[in-house]
Amino acid sequence: MIKKVIFILVVLSLVGGIGCSLTSRTTSPPAPANVKQVREANIGKLWMMRQMEIAVEDEIPLTLILKNGDRVDGYFYLEKGDNIGFSISGNSLIYTSKSPDTETTRVTSDRFSFTASQSQGIAYILTLNASANISGKKGGATVFMEIIYPSTGSLSIPIGTK
């Protein structure tokens, strides 16, 4: 009887030890997220406002799910970097940021507004692209963005890591 109890304790300690060592080898510390939510607030009962700080290494898509006739307003500006590409698309391209300066193609900030339509669908992708930096180095842009959309809509933010 004592031999069985000792055998069971030895087997349990081995299984526990192997399980812990496997877990510590396969997991890594969590990496920081690309999107940091600065503020989220309801504006009355009908609207939602989100402010985000977004670290863009290459390209980050934000997805808005809207109903026909929903209106969206927002703006963004660069906190770090020298250029950012920005576009909005539904079933087709709706908007692309362009530089107000005709001599350069640099985009450092922009304001946008659009109304969801049945012809564009219900999912709208807001894409930030940092691969178009003037300095030639890829990525490295940090963008502050504010979006105001109906509270019946939803905004999906990627959960990727750096």
Question: Outline of this structure?
Answer:
The protein has one helix spanning 2-26; strands at residues 35-43, 47-56, 59-65, 71-80, 85-89, 93-96, 109-115, 123-129, 141-150, 154-156. The termini are far apart. By secondary structure, the chain is of the alpha+beta class.
Explain what the structure shows:
With 162 residues, the protein is an alpha+beta fold. Helix content is 15%, strand content 44%. It has one domain: Jelly Rolls. Strands 1-2-9-4-7 form a five-stranded antiparallel β-sheet, with no helix packed on it. The radius of gyration is 24 Å and the shape is elongated. The N and C termini lie far apart (55 Å).
What multimeric state do the chains show? Answer: single chain
As for the number of domains, it is 1
User: How are the strands of the largest sheet arranged?
Assistant: 1-2-9-4-7
Proportion of helical residues: 10-25%
Q: Which consecutive residue ranges, at least 5 long each, have pLDDT under 50?
A: 21-26, 28-32
Whole-angstrom Rg: 24 Å
Distance from N terminus to C terminus (CA atoms, Å) equals 55 Å
Number of strands: 10
Major sheet characteristics:
5 strands, antiparallel
Mean pLDDT value = 80
CATH topology: Jelly Rolls
CATH level 1 class label: Mainly Beta
The run of helices and strands is HEEEEEEEEEE
| Structure classification | alpha+beta
Q: Identify the overall geometry.
A: elongated
Task: State the helix count.
Answer: 1
CATH architecture verdict:
Sandwich
